[in-house]
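The instructor's notes for this session suggest beginning with a concrete chain rather than abstract definitions. Hand out the sequence below and ask the class to guess, before any prediction is shown, which regions might be ordered.
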Amino acid sequence: MIYNLPFFAVALLIAVGMYAIIFRRNLIKIAIGIILVESGVNLFLITLGYREGGVAPIYTNLPPGIEIPGGMALPVPQALTLTSIVIGVAVTALILSFIMRIYRHYGTLDSRKIRRLKE
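After discussion, reveal the predicted structure:
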């Protein structure tokens, strides 16, 4: 049961994020929902790469008793997660800059009002 805790956290993060994206009207809350979904996906990738008792694959001198590759954590999910975090920061900055431009132009953060003003 305790080993499944990260997967429950992933499901919770993605569910809360999707709820915010679908049912919230405030653009900031929608952006927070997108960030929550991104964090859930990153946690999922890290959870997939976890190996109990595994060491980080960056050691050049392995501790005694550790064999390659069985005793090491998987490096590919870690690399994918780091890439995802960097891309996520850039996407978040872009989303927030769009939200600032929308607020300056329309004077509101409500997505329904912005749709009405567009027509």
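Then share the key points. The longest helix spans residues 75-106. The chain has a mean pLDDT of 87.
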